[in-house]
Amino acid sequence: MKINRSAVSLNVEDVAASAAFLSEHLGFREEMSADGFVSLGHPDAGMNVVLLRRGLEALPAGFRDQVAAGLILAFTVDDAAGTEARLKEAGVEITMPLLDEPWGERLFQVTDPNGVIVQFVEWRTPAEA
């Protein structure tokens, strides 16, 4: 099987708020949209983030009222410290400050307007950490 692209779909209360956050701060761009739906692509990510309005009838009955909870939307970046600084300067609240793990993971988190946790990870060798 060949997978050409990946996507993650998130049920949120306010599709426009999450779409604006991902577009303004992370460089995602709208590829498709309809009432209660937007698909965002990124030129570097190789994946789409699909936002669906909670309660949308197109969703299966058992899932339509759920929201994206307990999920972390993670992106690998080349410079976590620089990315954190840029987002802070843009007024984005850093909900988990930059952290260096002994195994080489450098990460921080922000939270979008719908409560979706967005994590940025830089992988370093343990010697660099």
Automatic annotation (TrEMBL):
Protein name as catalogued? VOC domain-containing protein
Q: Which Gene3D superfamilies match?
A: 3.30.720.110, 3.30.720.120
Q: Which domain of life is it from?
A: Bacteria
Domain VOC stretches:
2-123
Q: Which residues cross the membrane?
A: none
